[in-house]
Backbone:
């Protein structure tokens, strides 16, 4: 990345950088569709009431108001917020839950969808954290119930999707809220949400300070605090975490259910995505709508970037009267990944433009004939542009070179065609009706460096 | 469309409707890339100062403010607008001009880009007019100058792109501001922008009222008003408009330049996009940054929908000190088109999900084996999902039917594979390593009804 964003937190890419992003987006889409996920988009805008239903994150939300409308400002003088005011969505899960409830009568459940869109958060920008960024989500939502198997499947699909991207090794760190909450209840800590919030700070503030928090804010004894920390310290690449948890000697039904669920996810991943998944009992996830499986993902060697893919099971996010729509999903931070790929030059595009061929102009009158050549090439999927002016051939070749176009096409006054590979200088006769470049030159390719 | 948007002016599609939209977006992208246009995206957010630089449209802009930030509201009590405040872009041309100026050092000119993004306008929603909608733009921008030939090319590329969409006949109505302004000057009307604004109302209020406007607001004589209306009445499918304009007996250099330019566009279109283009001298375009070619596009039989593709030449939108970046571009109203396709059922998807095959479960223990089958099919590009529960086969088939999945795969306890086309009931042996559905079932197709 040669440039910095002209508005902090709102990154924009140059055309050759955008090709890398497009490759990431296309790869995710292809993987998701291969697994039967339907594309949907939700509007960028939700009501403030809808967005803040789950609390916690109101500080990050951008409200909307019509510039010339004196009354419609969401943050009005009274300091109160009108729940009907409009605001930009800060993730894709909350809008998706709203969409499912609104359209339940038109969807076939379990409903599997992917959603790739921009989201906005008014946070202080820093590396890996933008104010406008793209997320790529997959979720499966059931009507009434949703088999646990989808928790396993979602993790496997995401591992396959990430694996297809031009990124370094990644690791899904998976935990289960039932396991954690059952354990805390089993040792006598009843404010399980509070314990989770403290444990969530483990990587930032360390175990000593977390223990202090547990004692001072949640009334935990030293033994309780140490037991909670011991649980959070368990991390295994296989299902051996089950034995390690049992060795802590805590007995609770919810804990057993959580152990069983997490064991299923890890067992399947060991077999189907070896080396990509660990059971990590320190994972808590800040957002309070998760009720079972929770996932964060690190890019190995880029841990300070934060999680590149997060999510989990939410059994109570969406409901319509008594009808519940439990779901499970994961969200890839596309902008975070692409920013890192570009800033560290991890991958790049084989050329900077889609164009494979520039049709040169012999004279200004030959523009029509040149368009005929271009149309013939395009009919076989060859991206082609026609020069706008009949400059000297050297200048037209230089133009192609500057744009990153590999081939220049010449047609002389007698209608004889030749094509030149301007990288090698090689030039030979060619017929617009059948010439095709080599596969690696036909389309732009993105490869890891 | 079975549903109405839950927030007026913010349309959302059901999954099978989204497939139609995706087809439109994919088709446009493919056409643009075949013509060598690079993809870029600009941030959704611009500063108010940047957006309002050209005036006129401030009423339609959505300002942004952080919900918990008391000071940052763009429409503050003073009634004035802070030019550094943030707002959502209302089109893609103004942000593109800003992007070109900021990144001029990194772009190869003439720079050709396509940009497909959402834009927002706080207008009163009505048929064909949403508050959040997708535009698909192509533009070519030069450094210092831009050959007129790009005006011709842009019109041809757009005609090809629209032609590839599942929509009824369309007609590009093309005019040239130089022609109109030169003519007005030639007959002694010096406030040419004012005349254009009046002529722009022709379809809405009719010629008598436009004549009245010209007389009362622009001080035109009856003869001048009638001459301006005569010009606006010229509409030819070929270059014969040149003779008709000349017959009005007005002489002016700018008029000659405009006649020559429009003649070039129409002559090329007659040859390369026959029946798709007319010279229509009533086209004015409201926005004041156009300086030459101007285009609007009607969908034949759906004229009341308004223009589905508009734009033109702008020589002075982007500049950096003395350096000018003239451009020409056209913008397709994707949401307007897709809304119409869906509401009138003009086209539809061959099925409602990407999935071609559901792998049924023989028993709950067979999930792993079913995943192996699915992986084998996916490796050949066949979208496949695995049932989550080993329900009775009838129930699993019903599930596939409800989702719109054409094939169900069965593997018995001996490992024998069969695949059933649930539309015909036909079932036969199949090998996961080489079975492939017919081309029309492999992927979702969108066709006109």
Residues:
């Amino acid at each position: 990345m040669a440039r910095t964003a002209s508005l902090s937190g709102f990154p924009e890419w140059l055309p050759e950088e955008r090709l890398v992003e497009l490759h990431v987006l296309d790869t995710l889409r292809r993987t998701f569709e291969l697994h039967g996920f339907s594309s949907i988009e939700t509007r960028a805008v939700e009501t403030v009431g809808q967005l803040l239903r789950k609390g916690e994150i109101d500080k990050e939300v951008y409200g909307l108001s019509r510039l010339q409308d004196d009354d419609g400002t969401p943050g009005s003088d009274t300091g109160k917020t009108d729940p009907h005011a409009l605001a930009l969505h800060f993730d894709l899960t909350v809008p998706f839950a709203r969409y499912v409830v609104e359209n339940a009568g038109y969807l076939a459940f379990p409903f599997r969808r992917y959603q790739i869109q921009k989201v906005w958060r008014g946070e202080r920008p820093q590396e890996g954290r933008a104010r406008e960024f793209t997320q790529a989500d997959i979720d499966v939502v059931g009507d009434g119930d949703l088999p646990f198997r989808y928790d396993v499947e979602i993790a496997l699909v995401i591992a396959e999707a990430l694996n297809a991207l031009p990124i370094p090794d990644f690791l899904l760190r998976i935990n289960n809220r039932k396991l954690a909450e059952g354990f805390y209840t089993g040792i006598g800590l009843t404010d399980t949400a509070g314990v989770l919030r403290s444990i969530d700070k483990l990587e930032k503030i360390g175990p000593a300070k977390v223990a202090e928090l547990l004692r001072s804010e949640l009334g935990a004894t030293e033994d309780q605090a140490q037991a909670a920390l011991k649980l959070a310290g368990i991390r295994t690449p296989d299902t051996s975490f089950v034995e390690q948890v049992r060795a802590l000697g805590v007995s609770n039904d919810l804990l057993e259910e959580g152990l069983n669920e997490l064991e299923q996810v890890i067992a399947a991943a060991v077999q189907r995505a070896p080396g990509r998944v660990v059971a990590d009992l320190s994972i808590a996830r800040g957002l309070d709508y998760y009720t079972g499986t929770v996932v964060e993902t690190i890019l190995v060697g880029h841990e300070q970037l934060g999680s590149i893919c997060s999510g989990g099971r939410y059994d109570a996010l969406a409901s319509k009267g008594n009808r519940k729509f439990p779901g499970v999903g994961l969200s890839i931070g596309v902008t975070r990944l692409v920013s890192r790929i570009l800033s560290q030059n991890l991958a790049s595009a084989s050329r900077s433009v889609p164009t494979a061929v520039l049709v040169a102009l012999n004279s200004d009158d030959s523009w029509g004939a040149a368009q005929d050549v271009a149309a013939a090439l395009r009919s076989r999927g060859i991206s082609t542009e026609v020069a706008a002016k009949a400059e000297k051939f050297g200048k037209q070749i230089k133009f192609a070179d500057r744009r990153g176009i590999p081939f220049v096409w010449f047609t002389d006054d007698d209608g004889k065609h030749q094509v030149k590979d301007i990288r090698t200088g090689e030039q030979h006769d060619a017929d617009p009706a059948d010439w095709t470049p080599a596969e690696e030159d036909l389309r732009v390719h993105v490869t890891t460096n």
Remarks:
- The domain at 357-448 of chain B is CATH 3.40.50.800 (Rossmann fold).
- Residues 70-80 of chain B have pLDDT under 50 and may be disordered.
- Chain B touches chain A through 94 residues (CB under 8 Å).
